[in-house]
């Protein structure tokens, strides 16, 4: 496995090695010891999967507040996404900064989104399936979000935002400024 870190400390792009032949390929998608030694010392407690049928669907930006903050390890099983994470940690020198990466089923890339970051993605191919491991179970009470189109964040989504397909929840998320300087982790 290879890892790449960003200017915003915390997130990492992980690319597992693929071994292929005439039958297809084999990949070790996750190794707990390697992850703890090379990325972050966390324990994953739940796996989630979503399917989005329509190109231009945006899911996010989501996070969970303490004490149910979640780290997420995101990968694509089918299709492709533009995956985004935004630093929302209180007193972080990179508060409000975002990073984005294309994740594809073909490439096998994974994005590590630590606790203290909002997360979202845009569907780039029809019927895309996204799989992610999380470090805390879902908690409706702690489920929060930030507006995907907040100009203060300035995410450069790869679609015309007027045509974005959103859930009712994601249409009304608060702005980054409403976090009053960030969240405690």
UniProtKB/TrEMBL annotation:
This chain's protein is named dTDP-4-dehydrorhamnose 3,5-epimerase
Keywords linked to the UniProt accession: Isomerase
Question: What enzyme class is recorded for this protein?
Answer: isomerase
Quaternary arrangement and interactors, per the entry? Homodimer.
Q: Show the Pfam families listed in the entry.
A: dTDP_sugar_isom (PF00908)
Family under the similarity heading:
Belongs to the dTDP-4-dehydrorhamnose 3,5-epimerase family.
Explain the purpose of this protein. Catalyzes the epimerization of the C3' and C5'positions of dTDP-6-deoxy-D-xylo-4-hexulose, forming dTDP-6-deoxy-L-lyxo-4-hexulose.
- SUPFAM superfamilies, alphabetically? RmlC-like cupins
Tell me what organism the protein belongs to. Asticcacaulis machinosus
Q: Any idea of its EC number?
A: 5.1.3.13
Query: Which GO terms fall under molecular function for this chain's record?
Result: dTDP-4-dehydrorhamnose 3,5-epimerase activity
Give a yes or no for keyword Isomerase in this entry.
Answer: yes
InterPro entries referenced in this protein's UniProt entry, alphabetically: RmlC-like, RmlC-like_jellyroll, RmlC_Cupin_sf
Catalytic reaction(s) noted: dTDP-4-dehydro-6-deoxy-alpha-D-glucose = dTDP-4-dehydro-beta-L-rhamnose
Q: So, what pathway does this thing act in?
A: Carbohydrate biosynthesis; dTDP-L-rhamnose biosynthesis
The answer to whether the entry has keyword Repeat is no
């Amino acid at each position: 496995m290879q890892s790449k870190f960003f200017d915003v400390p915390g997130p990492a792009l992980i690319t597992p090695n693929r071994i292929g032949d005439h039958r297809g390929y084999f990949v070790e998608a996750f190794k707990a010891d390697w992850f703890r030694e090379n990325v972050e010392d966390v324990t994953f407690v739940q796996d989630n999967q979503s399917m989005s049928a329509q190109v231009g669907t945006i899911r996010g930006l989501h996070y969970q507040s303490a004490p149910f903050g979640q780290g997420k390890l995101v990968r694509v099983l089918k299709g492709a996404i533009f995956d985004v994470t935004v630093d929302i940690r209180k007193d972080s020198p990179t508060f409000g900064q975002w990073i984005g990466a294309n994740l594809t089923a073909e490439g096998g890339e994974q994005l590590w989104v630590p606790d203290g970051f909002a997360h979202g993605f845009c569907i780039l191919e029809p019927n895309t399936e996204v799989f992610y491991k999380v470090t805390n179970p879902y908690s409706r009470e702690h489920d929060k979000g930030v507006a995907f189109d907040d100009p203060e964040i300035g995410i450069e989504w790869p679609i015309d935002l007027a045509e974005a397909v959103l859930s009712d929840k994601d249409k009304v998320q608060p702005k980054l400024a409403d976090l009053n300087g960030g969240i405690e982790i």
